[in-house]
Amino acid sequence: MDLRKQSDQQSTKLILIVFVISTLVLFLFASLRHSLFQSGALDLGFFDQCIWLLSQGMIPRSSIIDIHILGDHAAFILYPLSLFYKIHPDIHWIFLIHAITISSGIFPIVSLSREKGLDIKYVYLVILIYLLSPVLFNANSTYDFHPDIFAVPCLLWCILWAEKNKLIYFCLTLLILVSCKAVFSLTAIALGIWLVFKNKKLMGTIAITIGIIWFLIATQIVMPMVGSGTGRFIHRYSSLGDSYLEILKNLFLKPELILSKAFSIDSLTYLLLLFVPFIWCLKYADITLLIIILPTIIMSILSDDPQQRYLANHYPLPIVPILVVMVISSINKFTQRKKWTYRFIIFWSVLAFVTMSRLNLFTGEYLQSLDTWQANNEAIALVKTKGSILTTHEIAPHVTHRPQVKLAFSNLNPNLEEFDYILLNTRHPSWQSDRNYILSLVEQARNIPSLKLEYNKDDVYLFSKKDL
């Protein structure tokens, strides 16, 4: 008995060590990307500015895209993050919380694995498979911050509490899930359908009810109340109809529209890449779990925006925990077939991570603007007040702790006299802009009497109001 207790303590200690190491690694990669000026105003700058505004007691309406934080996706989960900004307003809180959230998924994974009677070495293997998921790494380290990340541990905890028949814990976790994003109400409904299918009718009914009620509250009350709504996402599905009602009708009246998208090369490639890291377990897994991820997959396949089928984005995040649960449900059967499968699974997981993660960006693309890195930082250090600023997409997340931040996009024609600061990098004009446009803004700023050139080095320009 003492030996077993000692073994459990050693296992717990090792799992905690893995959690800490994973958190540090993910935090460092996200921070490194940001420090290299590879993060962006959309969406990291948007969330950072809104959370900062909340911490200052101001209305969390971002000037970057003129949207209230709740108008984006009714993500109430973001409100508590402002408490960290009250301690010290720093964007690195977002990176740390992001990393902790991903790494914390190992705790419900351990409990679910033990519920299924997995040997401790297979528990460690499942943790490795989870942490080596390319989608998790890419969402953390190469694609800014999104509240979708909170859905990953939430779904794992929901399934665990359902397995253990912990109704109160299940309901609380479900409420957290839907507070991450309005669209996760559909995931909650799908989870409920799966639970009913698994003869957990009470929990299933609760999940379906909460999903429906919260979807209606979020889309019909919360988002319209703050001056937004789901209508701004309609363009992603314009090929299926001009309104959500028309799209819903076409799902039944024009099935050829749906089938043409579902069986397109783009969609089939998306599905193949999504399942490749876990393809070895599908034969033995509980395939009924796929019910839970159907809303995410269907929305991605039907979207006209290819970004929703790009695995480096945040959109596939709710799929990862379900695939990991499928691994847990199948790994015993799979490993009983052949003795070499344990090593094969490790090899396959590492191979999938190496080939599908965007780790290579840190040795290539992310280093291309190092020639202006020092100048960017020196110019930012001269922005002393919380005055309004016009800047580029990649510089914006470094100066978002102020009420007014605008982006120098080439399709816009800003009035430069309205800004206290204008910070532009003409050598690396960044996303949604070009060198000629940024140079034209610099020339305009030179000719405005109320502005002075505060800094000019390596094609980085900082103008400020003379009376600051």
TrEMBL record:
<keyword id="KW-0472">Membrane</keyword>
<feature type="transmembrane region" description="Helical">
    <location>
        <begin position="258"/>
        <end position="278"/>
    </location>
</feature>
<feature type="transmembrane region" description="Helical">
    <location>
        <begin position="203"/>
        <end position="226"/>
    </location>
</feature>
<dbReference type="InterPro" id="IPR018650">
    <property type="entry name" value="STSV1_Orf64"/>
</dbReference>
<feature type="transmembrane region" description="Helical">
    <location>
        <begin position="284"/>
        <end position="303"/>
    </location>
</feature>
<protein>
    <submittedName>
        <fullName>DUF2079 domain-containing protein</fullName>
    </submittedName>
</protein>
<feature type="transmembrane region" description="Helical">
    <location>
        <begin position="315"/>
        <end position="334"/>
    </location>
</feature>
<keyword id="KW-1133">Transmembrane helix</keyword>
<dbReference type="Pfam" id="PF09852">
    <property type="entry name" value="DUF2079"/>
</dbReference>
<feature type="transmembrane region" description="Helical">
    <location>
        <begin position="169"/>
        <end position="197"/>
    </location>
</feature>
<keyword id="KW-0812">Transmembrane</keyword>
<feature type="transmembrane region" description="Helical">
    <location>
        <begin position="340"/>
        <end position="361"/>
    </location>
</feature>
<feature type="transmembrane region" description="Helical">
    <location>
        <begin position="122"/>
        <end position="139"/>
    </location>
</feature>
<feature type="transmembrane region" description="Helical">
    <location>
        <begin position="12"/>
        <end position="30"/>
    </location>
</feature>
<feature type="transmembrane region" description="Helical">
    <location>
        <begin position="91"/>
        <end position="110"/>
    </location>
</feature>
